[in-house]
Amino acid sequence: MKSKGFTLIELLVVISIIAVLAAILFPVFARAREKARQNTCLSNQRQIGVAIQMFTQDHEESLPLNTTVWKDINVDPNILVCPTKGKIPTNGYLYNNALSGKSVGDIADFSGTLMTMDGLSLSDTTKPQNVCFNTTQLEPRHSSKWIASYVDGHAALTADQPSFLPITSYLMSWLQASALLKTYQAGANIATWTGNLKTISATSSTVATPVLQTSGINGQPALYFSGGGGCPTLNFPYLPLGEFTLCAVFQDDASDSSCRIFSNNDNEGMGFNEGPAGTFQFGINKNGTAVLTPPVTGIVGKPHIVVLRRNPAKTPPTHWCYVDGTETSATGGMSTPFVNNGIWIGTYCGNNNYMQFKGYFAEILLYSKSLTDADRDTVVQYLKDQYSL
Fold first, then answer.
1. Torsion of CA 376, 377, 380, 386, to 10 degrees
2. Closest-CA residue to 103 (of 60, 62, 55, 65)
3. Alpha-carbon distance 306 to 237, whole Å?
4. Model confidence over 336-369: pLDDT tens digits?
5. Residue 261 and residue 357: Cα distance in Å, rounded?
6. Contact 99/62 with Cβ under 8 angstroms?
């Protein structure tokens, strides 16, 4: 008896069923493989974390230096291979630069401080390799997240970003645009924010607010100030009357010889603005001397670091303005304005039609202490690393 074969329609139906099953099962298999890779990566970073802890215990509770960490822990090379990343590069993990040589006793949050993480090493060979200096080095290669080990020894899949800030003592307010993206969508107007350690501040209620952008300064998130009528303004309302240090990264995008970047009360305060002839101007208004910093050429369209410090213990009280490595000083009384007005960023004392700033701010740090020169330089280096300056 002659056997009957498949008809074309039957064959197509079988192929269709197989295709549907494949479409359903292949992603499941892929997720299962990735889950297995995640478990291996978790195990790797947990072992790396234990090795760092053991080194720390043997070295008077000091964490490894960024220049020697991978040599110091001397783990099996196979542990350094992230299975999702592959064997090239030979080390797929990064060490948090902020922990370099730090005493564990100075770390406030053991379980929340990232120690190692999935990431990309720098192309700059003058810096230590497999060390994380800024968030652009993070690589979310595990289901859009990364795996990290923490100072307390545990490892986890996370979207948390490491903190690279080396000095947190006396830090009373901290605005970091990249951290705002955890709460706000790109394009949001930022009127208030809470987070980043002790950050609590708000904009003036009488003017517009800056806009959060994912890329503003060297590809890093920043707040955009649009200038013009109704100029966006930020206000740090409660600066300490005594010592303080304010550090910031900004980029002025408007050629304006009278652009106020930071300001305070006109009669009794301090200001920092783009001055004439391509300079930055720093002034103390009461019982003080207004001075110009040495010319900084090409200031428009480029990122800059500014540090303002006040030490009232000196006679007369002294104020310093640091811009891109150049520092100048002025003296003045200023008995009340910081308590009354704080510091305005973007306009002059919240006047939205006067001395308007157009450009970006990526990060602002406010300390209730006049940092030493060494500590100032440490924070400046952190900002340089964070924004590739």
1. -130
2. 62
3. 19
4. 445 455 667 777 655 656 667 788 989 989 888 8
5. 6
6. no
Structure tokens at 383: 């900002």
What torsion, rounded to 10 degrees, do the Cα atoms 159, 165, 167, 170 define?
-70
The pLDDT assigned to 269 comes to 56
Do 143 and 96 meet the contact criterion of CB atoms below 8 Å apart? no
CATH of domain 171-387: 2.60.120.200
Give the Cα separation of 147 and 119 in Å (integer): 9
Tokens 């949050």 — which residue?
109
Helix (H) or strand (E) holding 149: strand 146-150
Rounded to whole angstroms, the Cα distance separating 258 from 279 reads 11
DSSP string, 22-68: HHHHHHHHHHHHHHHHHHHHHHHHHHHHHHHHHHHHHTTTBPPPTTT
d(CA 181, CA 190): 11
> What pLDDT is recorded for position 61?
92
Measured distance CA(117)–CA(119) in Å, rounded? 6
Where the chain has pLDDT below 50, the residues are 196-200, 267-268, 287-288, 336-337, 339
The rounded distance, in Å, linking the Cα atoms of 87 and 146 is 17
Whole-angstrom Cα distance, residue 274 to residue 215? Answer: 23
- Run of H or E residues at 192: strand 192-195
Buried b (16+ CB within 10 A) or exposed e, 240-260: beebbbbbbbbbbbbebeebb
Distance CA 92, CA 325 (A): 34
Q: In the block, which residue shows the tokens 């401080």? A: 113
Q: Are 350 and 179 in contact (CB under 8 A)?
A: no
CB 285 within 8 A of CB 269: yes
Residues of the chain within CATH 2.60.120.200 domain(s) are: 171-387
What stretch of H or E contains 195? Answer: strand 192-195
Three-state SS for 320-384 is EEEECCEEEEEECCCCCHHHHHCEEECCECCECCCCCCEEEEEEEEEECCCCCHHHHHHHHHHHH
